[in-house]
Amino acid sequence: MDPVLIMPDDVAEAVRRAPNWKSPGLDGLHHYWLKGFMVCHAVLARQFQEALDQKSLPSLFTTGITHLVPKDRDSTDPSKYCPITCLPTIYKTLTSILSARIIRHLNSNQVMSRAQNGCRGGGRGTKEPLLIDAVIGKVVKRNRRNLSAAWIDYKKAFDSVPHT
User: How far is residue 41's CA from residue 26's CA, in Å, rounded to a whole number?
Assistant: First the structure.
């Protein structure tokens, strides 16, 4: 993969795609404001590039705020809480830029098989096989037919798929 050079247009595109009012992290910044203050895009691009060149991110980028959200009404039991961490908007923007670059590289070089849906944008990962299974089950039940099915879990399945 070619070296990553982050330009103001990359920041603008990442900010444009981001939802306006997602929960911010320690920076307290919503994407709404980054969309409006376009003069910041050049400064952010330069800071992102410096961080990548130094191979180190400032702690402000990677420090999140963790909230404990109750799973149900019994909020006295600690095991009934789900931790949710809100990362800084600046970090979300940087990772969005890097993710777009990686996806572009994977697609242009045909590195990933079309069958690998789990991490592909717009894909539903394991939901598709589950939906197919549910539909087949309903059809079999409605038509009063017998069905035999087997699921095979391949160890290191990705390594065994031809990537030509």
Answer: 20
Over residues 19-69, the pLDDT tens digits come to 999 889 999 999 999 999 999 999 999 999 999 999 999 888 889 999 988
| pTM, two decimal places | 0.70
Tokens of 134: 């549910």
Please answer whether residues 63 and 25 qualify as being in contact, where contact means their C-beta atoms are separated by less than 8 angstroms. yes
In the Cβ-directed half-sphere of 125, how many Cα atoms lie within 13 Å? 4
Separation of alpha carbons 84 and 141, rounded Å = 40
Q: Can you tell me which residue has the tokens 């590289």?
A: 105
